[in-house]
Design a protein that fits this description.
This protein is an alpha+beta fold and 230 residues long. The chain has helices at residues 18-29, 63-73, 84-109, 115-125, 131-148, 155-172, 186-199, 206-212, 215-229; strands at 2-6, 34-38, 52-55, 58-61. Helix 1 (18-29) crosses helix 7, helix 3 crosses helix 5 and helix 7 crosses helix 9 (215-229).
């Protein structure tokens, strides 16, 4: 049995981290049976990062590496038929989403307008968590933001960067269907991991305000969400 280890759920979304949700969505779209274990301690994870997957005793880290591993090992057809140009577009979108991640994370852990709301939502949803543990995680994230660079920006500049990423994504996602046609690809799982953690997020950040103004992004998110429940 495959086991996905990732961060806890929040606001009805299976993982409040976009990378874990991306892998979760991929597994669901491919109809692979798996166990989902929610954890916070990444000590046992490859490179000390979540999510990671256990497959017959083998631990695989990094969301893109996990997806590539599953496609190869289980001969999954989800990306069959994509052209070379579409595969390049998928790669570029995933790298852009890596940039968006930092803005999403900043909006939760650093921005003083939203941090108390995020913290309290986690504590309500997961009574086993403590304020002390979340404060420790917040201090750790502050260091990450500083060394990555986003922590040195003024808040307005941070959100300008994230909105710019979402604007480009809105130009690429079609008005109907999925990224490359009538059926979802692994790229759609990647997009959902991020957009669902903005759309279903019950805190009105600038990222959510922008996403809600783009009907195609909302429709895409809802379509994948419905497909996962089916």
């Amino acid at each position: 049995m495959l086991t996905l280890y990732s961060y806890p759920d929040l606001f009805g979304v299976a993982d409040n981290n976009p990378y874990g949700l991306k892998v979760y969505a991929f597994l669901k779209l491919c109809k692979l049976a798996f166990r989902h274990e929610h954890i916070l301690d990444a000590e046992k994870a490859p490179r000390g990062q979540l999510p990671y997957l256990e497959d017959n005793g083998e631990a695989i880290g990094d969301s893109d590496t996990i997806i590539a591993h599953l496609i190869a090992r289980y001969t999954l057809p989800i990306d069959d038929g994509l052209t070379a140009s579409q595969r390049d577009t998928d790669h570029l979108i995933r790298r852009m989403l890596d940039d968006l991640y930092w803005v999403m994370s900043y909006s939760r852990w650093k921005d003083p307008r939203f941090w108390p709301l995020f913290r309290d939502a986690l504590l309500r949803t997961h009574p086993g968590l403590t304020k002390a543990a979340l404060d420790k995680a917040r201090d750790y994230n502050f260091k990450r933001y500083y060394y990555q660079g986003i922590g040195r920006y003024e808040p307005e500049a941070v959100y300008d960067r994230g909105v710019a990423d979402l604007r480009v994504l809105a130009h690429l996602v079609p008005e109907g269907g999925f990224l490359f046609g009538a059926k979802p690809s692994s790229g759609d799982a990647s997009i959902y991991g991020f957009t669902a953690n903005i759309y279903f997020y019950e805190i009105d950040t600038p990222l959510k305000e922008f996403l809600m103004s783009r009907p195609n992004l909302v429709a895409h998110c809802r379509a994948i969400h419905a497909a996962l429940a089916g």
